[in-house]
Design brief:
about 350 residues, Rossmann fold, binds 4'-deoxy-4'-aminopyridoxal-5'-phosphate, six-stranded mixed β-sheet, alpha/beta, 2 domains, four-stranded parallel β-sheet
Length: about 350
């Protein structure tokens, strides 16, 4: 029987997530596509791992003292992870977030007792950007540390030491390819480095949404973006410290429409309710699987990340009026309901 051992404290619940074969994507790719269920973390996303690693790192360096404060700029999921870990360790949390992220994430952060600071979305070069605002707030707050998830490589270490060995073990050392999108880049770089340490022939692919600059960087050596995406938590315009030296072998660019199509299919056909970055990752995994099949690899095994739960996006991805306002197709079962 495959049953997990009991944990001595709640932080033990982070990581060691299940891996599941995705039937529709596997059929579409002609090989096996596996999804790492990061939505099963206590905070509902992959970012619990980075939050725990960053806080443990600050503690180990003596920067975070009992009663201290953790400050972070985030699209939301890292903030949720930090708030949970900080509560478990006796710290306060201040989260700076762009005000165009989902209402569910804002409500969740407040419910978890984080102090939430909303700022208008703006370019990274603007001092009002959520990342710079969070750094300033950390400097101004006594006893505070800045988590700095984009350039703090404790983030990717969580994936080198956690996610990658978990995948290797869960797939019994039979893994041909891995792909996911980048926000901070911690997941793609960390899993990439971790898996290559087991077998350097594992192909690591970046799956980029539209509006991000990394596809062009890895394809042509130039940071340049085209188009846009409504996906939250992914889409990067620079080489963060977490992305430095990431072993990216190939890259795909996936539209919101393609990602939404997989979100819809996984929900209706396999009973998984996911956010858009997961749909984009799955679309990338199908492309990677097809590429490996076309090269003649026998029954390739491809893994990707199911980053967060769709329950976090009921007011956006699962809301016909919101989708229509963004010029995106409405899931057909919601469109039917609207018409009745
Ligand atoms: N998907 C979602 C929903 C996220 O919140 C994030 C984190 N920003 C990512 C994907 C990307 O993860 P990473 O920061 O490790 O690149």
């Amino acid at each position: 029987m495959n049953i997990t051992r009991p944990f001595a404290d709640t932080l033990g619940l982070i990581g060691n997530t299940p891996l599941v074969r995705l039937a529709g994507p596997s059929a579409a790719a002609g090989c096996d596509i596996w999804g790492k269920c990061e939505f099963a973390n206590p905070g509902g996303s992959v970012k619990d791992r980075a939050a725990l690693a960053i806080i443990r790192d600050a503690e180990s360096r003596g920067e975070l003292q009992p009663g201290g404060t953790v400050v972070e700029g985030t699209a939301g999921n890292t903030g949720i992870g930090i708030a949970l870990v900080a509560n478990a360790r006796g710290y306060k949390t201040i989260i700076v977030m762009p005000d165009n992220q989902s209402k569910e994430k804002m409500d969740t952060l407040r419910a978890l007792s984080a102090k939430l600071v909303l700022v208008p979305p703006t370019k990274f070069s603007n001092p009002g950007h959520f990342v710079h605002t969070s750094r300033r707030l950390a400097e101004e707050t006594p006893g505070a540390v800045w988590a700095n998830q984009f350039d703090n490589i404790a983030n990717r270490r969580a994936h080198i030491e956690g996610t990658a060995p978990e995948l290797w073990e869960q797939m019994a050392g039979r893994i041909d390819g891995f792909t996911c999108a980048a926000g901070t880049g911690g997941t793609i770089a960390g899993v990439g480095l971790g898996l290559k340490a087991f077998d350097e022939n594992i192909r690591i692919a970046l799956t980029d949404p539209h509006g991000a600059a990394l596809y062009n960087y890895y394809a042509h050596g130039e940071l340049a973006a085209e188009g846009s995406s409504v996906a939250e938590g992914i889409g990067q315009g620079r080489i963060t410290a977490n992305l430095e030296g990431a072993p990216i072998d190939t890259q795909f660019r996936i539209s919101d429409e393609e990602g939404l199509d997989w979100v819809a299919r996984l929900l209706r056909e396999e009973g998984l309710c996911l956010g858009l970055s997961s749909g984009i990752n799955v679309a990338g995994a199908v492309m990677l699987g097809k590429q490996l099949v076309a090269e003649g690899r026998k029954q390739p095994q491809v893994a990707t990340i199911l980053c967060d739960t769709g329950f976090r996006y009921l007011s956006t991805l699962y809301n016909p009026a919101w989708l229509t306002s963004k010029g995106l197709p409405v899931f057909d079962w919601l469109a039917d309901e609207d018409a009745s």
